[in-house]
């Protein structure tokens, strides 16, 4: 609200009240008028309604429970709809394509839809809002999390859920074999080989083997070897560093993975790990409950967590924003939409949602003992360190994400199927990825 207008309103109200008192008016102000807060100040958004669309996600459940608090503070109403991931993307695409002014605020996956949404003009940049209020402390968000929600140097959204790739390991198996927790990819390969014993259904390593899903987990292998998917609109998955990363990931799965690993995404990988049949696994920290929940896992009390092992460039796991909040470019009241986002991503509310197991992006909350109660104590320092050294994307940052993932994933699948000419496979995939990058420029 305009400060001068607000000051003028207060003066006018004061004069009116004084006149009423002088005239002997004994009427009391109406109770519950909806335009004053508990301290007697004005609610600038009283009577406004913000439409919010969320994914069917634990964060959405947590924020819904807190909405009465926001509505009481602001006088604003929040209308919420929730959808499964694919339904959510479809709904948003249909509404934005038609130029709809709703929803005002929405959850989205920055690295999956972010560039598409932004390039199509469906997202309102939030740079003008993020540093307006010093108390909001925008600098408190991790650099990698903000990197995930930045498109063309513009802030497209505010992070609400983060994740990093970590190493899961079996404490009991390492202890019995006298093996230290691997700190490098070479150490990991040696430990995997030593603990691999398919005769007793004990496999050394598991991770995602399906062509598209494996890309996110492959990314940390690339970064840790000093490679990346692309650089300045140029595909770079044919470099020596990239070839080494492909080889390491593909060989671990081919030679030391469980049967059927070629067709595994994260549910299958976590499932077989939870059965106690695998020594090591690399995947997202956000999924840890799938192997630590005693109702789901036979090795719940034997699971250890460690930093992603380092390669030539050190330990460089992905550290990304998996879910963020954005404002519809057509929203009628962007100030009200931002007011909701500012509240939902404030230190106070992030603390409340993170205590329920939703990993946020505010470093101060991770440093707060209350903020980490929803996570295993052993996992917390790994999340904090990964956030500091991690890379802000876990796939090629392009509009045609699905095509790009398939093109790159083909290299790993060829290795898993016995192809020994990794350089040739990488060259072919690099050409395919470059074609996708070039095509996206015309969109």
From TrEMBL:
SUPFAM superfamilies: Periplasmic binding protein-like II (SSF53850). It comes from the Bacteria. Residues 1-22 form the signal peptide. InterPro entries: Bact_solute-bd_prot1, SBP. PROSITE patterns: PROKAR_LIPOPROTEIN. Keywords: Signal. This is Sugar ABC transporter substrate-binding protein. It comes from Paenibacillus contaminans.
């Amino acid at each position: 609200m305009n400060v001068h207008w607000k000051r003028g309103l207060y003066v006018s109200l004061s004069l009116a009240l004084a006149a009423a008192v002088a005239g002997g008016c004994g009427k009391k102000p109406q109770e519950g008028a909806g335009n004053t807060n508990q301290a007697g100040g004005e609610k600038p958004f009283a009577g406004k309604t913000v439409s919010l669309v969320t994914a069917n996600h634990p964060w959405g459940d947590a924020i819904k429970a807190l909405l009465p608090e926001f509505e009481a503070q602001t006088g604003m109403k929040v209308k919420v709809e929730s959808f499964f991931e694919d339904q959510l993307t479809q709904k948003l695409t249909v509404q934005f394509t038609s130029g709809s002014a709703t929803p005002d605020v929405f959850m989205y996956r920055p690295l999956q839809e972010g560039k598409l949404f932004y390039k199509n003009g469906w997202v309102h940049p939030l740079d003008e809002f993020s540093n307006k209020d010093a108390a909001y402390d925008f600098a408190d968000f991790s650099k990698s999390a903000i990197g995930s929600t930045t498109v063309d140097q513009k802030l497209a959204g505010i992070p609400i859920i983060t994740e990093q790739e970590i190493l899961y390991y079996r404490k009991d198996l390492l202890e019995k074999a006298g093996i230290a927790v691997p700190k490098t990819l070479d150490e990991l390969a040696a430990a995997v080989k030593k603990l691999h014993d398919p005769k007793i259904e004990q496999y050394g390593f598991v991770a995602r083997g399906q062509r598209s899903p494996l890309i996110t987990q492959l990314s940390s292998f690339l970064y840790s070897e000093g490679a990346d998917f692309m650089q300045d609109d140029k595909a770079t998955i044919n470099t020596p560093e990239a070839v080494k990363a492909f080889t390491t990931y593909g060989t671990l799965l081919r030679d030391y993975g469980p049967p059927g690993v070629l067709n595994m995404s994260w549910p299958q990988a976590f499932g077989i790990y939870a059965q106690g049949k695998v020594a090591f696994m690399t995947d997202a920290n956000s999924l840890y409950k799938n192997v630590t929940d005693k109702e789901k896992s036979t090795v719940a009390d034997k699971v250890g967590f460690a930093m992603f092992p380092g390669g030539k460039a050190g330990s460089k796991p992905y550290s990304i924003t998996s879910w963020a909040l954005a404002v519809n470019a057509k929203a009628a009241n962007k100030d009200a939409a931002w007011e909701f986002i500012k509240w939902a991503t404030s230190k106070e509310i992030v603390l409340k949602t993170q205590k329920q197991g939703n990993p946020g992006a505010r470093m101060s909350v991770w440093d707060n003992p209350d903020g980490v109660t929803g996570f295993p104590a052993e996992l917390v320092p790994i999340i904090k360190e990964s956030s500091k050294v991690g890379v802000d994307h876990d796939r090629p940052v392009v509009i045609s994400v699905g095509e790009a993932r398939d093109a790159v994933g083909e290299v790993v699948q060829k290795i898993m199927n016995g192809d020994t000419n990794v350089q040739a496979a990488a060259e072919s995939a690099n050409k395919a990825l470059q074609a996708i990058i070039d095509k996206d420029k015309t969109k």
